[in-house]
Amino acid sequence: MWPEPVLGILSAAGDRVVFEDGAREVTGSAMLSMIRRIAAGLRGEGVGPGDGVILLLGVDAPAFAAIIAAFAVGARVSGVRADQLDHVAAAGVGTLIDDARVAALLHTPDEPLSAAGRPGDIARILYTSGSTGEPKGCCQTYEAMTAAWAAHPDRWPPAIRALAERMDRFLVFGSLTSQVMLEYGILALAAGGRLVVARQPAFPDAIVRHRATASVITVGKLHQLVRSLSARPPTLRALMVSGSPLDPGRLREALEALGPVVFHGYGQTETGMIAMLTPGEMLESPSSLASVGRPPAAVEVDVRDGELYVRTPAQAASYWNDPTLTAEVFVDGWVRTRDLAHLDPNGYLHLTGRARDVIIVHAELIHAGAVERALATDPAVAEAYVIGKPDPSSGEAVHAFVVAATGRTPDTTALAASVAARLGEKATPATITVIDQVPTTPAGKPDKASLAHLAPTSGSGDRARVGA
């Protein structure tokens, strides 16, 4: 049962370094000892199977040990960012464990440890970005996490095996409770590599400084990296790009600038990885650049009326305290992705749009409806409409259109500030255009496709404000 495979990897590592944080190097044996001590401390405080903990942790060896220890005692683990903490705590998912508490737990005597999770219990709650102000918690069971392939080389699909071979020094940053950082980190350990901390994760400097062979990057950051490169980082062997659709031209540009190191992944918080396109496939079949790769054999895909449904070994089972959304997304064992897609004759998966009205800015989902509602609270706005367009810096950018209330003139600068205050900077429109009326479809509904043609160019990411 999870996380027994991770404990086994660390035990087998012994004196091999598995974690590097500046001058500090931690061996497999030392990491395992930290995990046992933290787990013993948690058990001493009464934390056991089915109990909830909220992890607000940074990116260091004790944080990794605390994550694995929380799973080992069978807890329900929720990793959060600081901006999600109030919502998550109010949702009643558990008690807070931060870096200071982990430091205290490390003083507990080392005790024997075995995984205590129960198959049907929720192992972790993965929170989405919460652009609407209400983050969704995706619930994954211990049974599902045990079925995941990251810690099991014999289960690796071909694309994951090709990636794992390049993860000698996997650069980690932000928080290890992140779904992507934790799962790729475990993949690196299973492949015999180590996790290398970047406290200042600017690319390409961090890659060069830490001699990283692999890391994760968003689409916007990839564009910036390609533009800033004077030479390819000499140690880089794998760069996993995720979080936003990647234009084939941009992918080709990255491949030319960086060489055969770019892996383009597609997945969701609810599902984990659905497909991955490897650099070898890109070079052998240039037409594959328009896809997100082939789904591995362990992933089932079904396109229903143009919308993609999937089944993955480690998919979530529900949303925390949201039966309505659970019934909408988790359907008879399938996950409704709400992405529009098709499979080509060679088995490559192509994304063609989104059934849900969201914009992905710096790998975070921004719900158009939330921005529209924020804009519409201004007395000078009669109607508000929001669309997304590709952006070289952020992957996609938010563009808004407002119809003025009778006798009023909307202040676009004030509108942008209002959205930022309510929903955060990433939800702030790159442009706000005042229009006389919204174009409509033959059915009389707002025609957002037409609005997309009217949206001004946001340039290099500067916030443009457009009047009537």
TrEMBL record:
The keyword Magnesium does not apply. PROSITE patterns: AMP_BINDING. The chain crosses the membrane at residues 53-75, 170-191. It comes from the Bacteria. The keyword Transmembrane applies. Keywords: Membrane, Transmembrane, Transmembrane helix. Residues 14-107, 116-320 form the AMP-dependent synthetase/ligase domain. This is AMP-dependent synthetase. It comes from Paractinoplanes deccanensis.
